[in-house]
Amino acid sequence: MGKIFRFYKDVDTDQIIASQYLLFPTIDEMKAHTFESLDADFASTVKPGDYVVADENFGCGSSREQAPSVLKALGVKAVVAKSFARIFYRNAINIGLPVIVCKDLYDNVEAGQEMELSMENGTITCEGKTYECTKLPAKMQAILDQGGLIASLDA
Prior knowledge:
By secondary structure, the protein is α/β, with parallel strands linked by helices. A 7-stranded mixed beta sheet has the order 4-3-2-1-5-6-7. Strand 3, helix 5 and strand 4 form a beta-alpha-beta unit.
């Protein structure tokens, strides 16, 4: 089980990690500023195994791969949204951050609730209710299991 951090629609990559922090030399230094403009306490309160749940078009904006990277570095287990910007989705898979489409979850959950994602079954359970979500193809799941596309190429 992980805690839900809930964000609205059209969260762009600059809101995930603002451009001024891209000057830091490492993701480890950047991660303390994740979602700083939307939730100043996010980086200090998110715990490994927690989830980001969002409305439509999560990760729109620039193509910066640091956006999914800071989420993964903070231990976010997965980002679950109604839809994703294509480039964010691709970058997340490249670095090994699960991105799951679930059309019904966002409108039925609140920040702070606990949820459990079963990528194997394509389901999310929260507050005793089960939601159907993207069940990743075996090949994509294997890429995530190896730490992302980049890591799988080294395997």
